[in-house]
Each structure stands twice: as C-alpha cells, then as structure tokens.
Structure to design on (380 residues):
C-alpha cells in the first residue's frame, strides 16, 4: 500500500507519493490515495492492512483507521468480497507475528461482526461483548504460551521432537514449535466465548434436536458454521477447533473435579511397576509399585505396597483420575497441549487480571505473566 516501485533501468526505488519510504521508517500503514476511496474500491484492503500491521508490527495511519470504521466499508466488505477471501485473510492474520494485535484491530475497528457474523444466531446487543471476551481469552492464551516459551515447564522440555501434521495421532511436537496447532488454538481461543454463549442460549430453549430429515448441516454447531460457511476453512480445521474447545472444557472439569491433591500428584509425577529382577534387595516382594517425585534436583522413588495397593483410597483415586484423563486425551489426540493451554488460560482470564496495552499491535516478549499457584500441577 506504499506505492513504491523499483526502476529496473535506474536500479533504484521510486517513491511516487513522497511518503512511502518515510512511512516505512516510521512503521505506519497508509494508503497512497484517500483511504475511504481506496477501501471502497477494494474492501478486502481493510483486512490486508490489518494483516500487514500484525505481520510487520506496524501502526495504522489515523485516517486509515477512521475510514476502516466507516459503515460503508463494512457493508462493502460484506457484499462485494467473497467469504473465501475473507477467511483467507483471517487465516494469515492468525499466522502472523501478532495474532492478538490483528484480532484487536478487527474488534476496535468494528469489523469483527462482519468477519465473524454471529448476529444470525445471537442477539446483536451481545455481539460486541462476546468479541471482547474472545479477544481477552486470545490475549491471555497468547501471553501464557509466550511465558511458557521463555520458561519452559517440564512437558515442554522434550529432548527430541518430531516434525508431523497437527492431525497425526502417533507423533507430536511441542506446541511452542508447532505453527499449525497454534493457528488452530488462536481460532479456538477467540471463538470459545461464541460457542459458550450459544450453548447457554440453546440450553435455556429446551428445543428438541434437529431431525435426520433436516440433514447434517442442521446438527452443526455455531462455531462449525462460522468456520465452514462464513470463513470457508477446511473441515479438518473446523473439527480441530471443536476438539480443542470440547477438550478444554473437559480438562477444566477434571481440574475442578474435587479429586484429591495426592491422586493428582501421583498421576503427574509418574507411576511405575518394577519386577523382582530389577531390585537389589532379594527380600522384597516380587513386584513393587511407586511414583517418581522430584525433590529439588533429586528424583526420588516413593513406594506403594503392591499387596494392599487396591485398598488404598488415594491410589484408587489416582487410577480413576488417570482413566478420566486418558478418555479426554483419546478424543483430542495430538491437540491435547492446545486444549490444556486453553483450559488454563480460560481460568486465568476469569480472574480479570488486566494487562496494560499502549498500542493495538504489541510485543508480549517482555510481559510478566501472573501465575496462579492452583495451576502448578498442570502448568503447560
């Protein structure tokens, strides 16, 4: 949008507007012609300007921001631009260096309702509040993952990783290194309040489920409709978003299920069984069970009596808790890390812990994230 040209004869850049190079140096997104004229000529440019602002961490020129908020631009974007092109721009925004900044611009410029049209299913008065909630959850999730990248917890410190697809059920890589899973996670975080609000509405209606005659589309959730019909994303992306959201709720329920802290401690610290041949003392039982517990820098083994193991209430709780966790993981598969992050971030966002943000596009690398002690056992 800077209208800079490279003259192959003179082998130099030509700045025909006289502002292009200066705007680049200042980190400003602007238009060569009048902003409103430019956006109405091709409404997709308003989304491209947001994408480039997020990708390059630039600010939008004030006149461009004002034009982007014009109602005529929203109408033109909804009527003139295909949903495939809109969805493609959103996808690139979430792949950018600052997905939170991109979504913040969409919300602040009153474009979220056009890009994610939920007014057909949810009262318009609730729309802005839901977008704000989605932005808060996305921001919290992004900051939490950045914090994990700077100070990796145990399960983010694998000695080796595998380069595989998001949907591969055998091998996986760390979330901080997995661009595809993070992209699906950003969708999930921003749209989670939409899903939750719609489910609350549906639960109060008490309407019977759609009949088979209405077809498969009648059974699709609002998030699936947004992803498939409005953004024209691949079905596997939409299904991945649904899996993450459902698993995040299940993980939250597990965290708040009331299982004993001792059972959780046994589970997350690792359970093992050893045969007699591996023991130095020949007087002990044929097998023994236990758990590994890290004390400082020393890994200790805490034994459990194998004979009375099943009569131990804590052990039974741990096994039941382990089974419940395995059922959740079996459903979400290789996206379990994203679901865990979303669950924890949703609980952090509920604390209403505010972060000061000076600009629409910000870097979170130096921000210190609040850690809730209650989540230490499940820190991602």
């Amino acid at each position: 949008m800077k209208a800079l040209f490279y003259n192959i004869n003179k082998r130099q850049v030509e700045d025909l507007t006289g502002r292009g190079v200066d705007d680049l140096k200042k980190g400003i997104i602007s238009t060569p012609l009048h902003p409103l004229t430019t956006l109405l000529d091709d409404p997709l440019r308003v989304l491209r300007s947001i994408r480039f602002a997020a990708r390059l961490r630039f600010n939008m020129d004030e006149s461009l921001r004002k034009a982007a908020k014009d109602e005529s631009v929203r109408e033109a974007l909804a009527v003139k631009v295909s949903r495939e092109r809109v969805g493609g721009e959103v996808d690139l925004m979430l792949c950018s260096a600052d997905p939170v900044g991109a979504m913040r611009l969409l919300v602040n410029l009153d474009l979220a309702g056009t890009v994610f049209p939920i007014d057909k299913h949810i009262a318009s008065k609730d729309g802005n509040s839901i977008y704000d909630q989605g932005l808060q959850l996305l921001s919290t999730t992004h900051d939490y993952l950045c914090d994990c990248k700077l100070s990796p917890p145990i399960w983010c410190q694998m000695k080796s990783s595998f380069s595989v697809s998001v949907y591969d059920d055998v091998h996986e890589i760390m979330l901080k290194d997995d661009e595809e899973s993070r992209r699906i996670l950003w969708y999930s975080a921003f749209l989670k309040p939409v899903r939750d609000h719609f489910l609350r509405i549906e639960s109060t209606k008490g309407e019977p489920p759609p009949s088979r005659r209405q077809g498969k589309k009648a059974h699709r959730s609002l998030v699936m409709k947004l992803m498939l019909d409005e953004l024209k994303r691949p079905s596997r992306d939409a299904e991945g978003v649904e899996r993450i959201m459902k698993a995040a709720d299940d993980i939250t329920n597990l965290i708040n299920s009331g299982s004993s802290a001792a059972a959780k401690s046994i589970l997350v610290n690792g359970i093992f069984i050893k045969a007699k041949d591996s023991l130095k003392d020949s007087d002990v039982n044929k097998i023994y069970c236990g758990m590994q517990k890290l004390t400082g820098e020393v890994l200790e083994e805490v034994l459990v009596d194998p004979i009375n193991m099943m009569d131990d209430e804590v052990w039974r709780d741990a096994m039941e808790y382990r089974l419940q966790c395995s059922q959740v993981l079996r459903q979400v598969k290789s996206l379990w890390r994203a679901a865990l992050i979303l669950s924890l971030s949703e609980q952090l966002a509920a604390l209403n812990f505010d972060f000061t943000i000076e600009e629409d596009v910000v870097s979170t690398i130096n921000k210190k994230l609040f850690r809730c002690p209650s989540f230490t056992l499940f820190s991602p």
In short: The chain is about 50% helix and 10% strand. Strands lie at 4-7, 12-15, 28-29, 59-60, 271-275, 287-295, 298-304. Residues 1-82 form a domain with the Hydrophobic Seed Protein fold (CATH 1.10.110).
